[in-house]
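Following up on my earlier thread - several people asked me to post the actual chain instead of describing it. Fair enough. Here it is, all 219 residues.
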Amino acid sequence: MSIKPFSWFPSEYSDRLLATAVGASSAFPPVLAPCELNLDPNSFDPNLQPPPVITNPDFRNKIVLADGGVYDNLGLETAWKQNKTVLVSDGGGLLGGEADPAGDWLGMTNRVLSIIYNQVGSLRKRWVIEFFSNHIRDGSYWGIGTDIRNYDLPTALVCPIDITTRLAQTATRLTSLDDTAQQQLIDWGYAVCDAAMRRWVVLDAPAPSQSPYGTFKKP
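Reply from S.P.:
Thanks for posting it. Predicted structure:
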C-alpha cells in the first residue's frame, strides 16, 4: 500500500510504502531511530506556497525521521491548525513514583528525561481540555490513565479504576504481550473512547453492552 505524500513531498516519491510511514512513526530514539529517506533535492516544487522555511538543498538530499512523539506526543500541532473538531487519544503510560531513584549518570538522565516528557504531555493535556471547555474547539480527550467516572456518563461501561490504572502502567516494550493483557488493553481503549465520544461528540450514539472481549460491561 502506498501513502499520499504531504504537500512538500516530491511527487516522484508518492509510491512510498505504508511500511515506510509506519517505520518512521516507530523510530523511537535512540534505539530505533532514525528512519532515513534518500531524496533528489531537485524534485521539490520550487513554487510551493507558502514557501518552505528551510530552503538549503543540503536538507533535501536526505530526510532523517523519528517518532513524532519526540515533538508532539498527542499529535495536536497540525490537527489543531486545520480542524474545528479534534479527537485526542492519549496512550502514553503513567509516570510512576520511584522511592529509590537511580543515582548514576545514565539512570538520572533517563529519569529526568521521563519527567520532562511527562510534564510536556501534561501541559498539552490541560491546554486541550481547557480549549474544549471554553468551546474554542469541539471534540474530546481520552487517555489510558483516565478515570472513566469523570465523564459523568451513566451508560458508560463499568471500568474499575484499580483495573484501568494497572493497565495504564503497562510498560512500553518491544516484545509481545500475552493475549489476556492485550485483550484487556483493547477493551479499555474501546471503553474510554466510547465514553468520551458519547459524552461530548456523538451524544445520541447507542451505548454498547460490553467491550469487544467482554472485560468491561454495561452498568
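The chain is about 35% helix and 10% strand. That should answer part of your original question.
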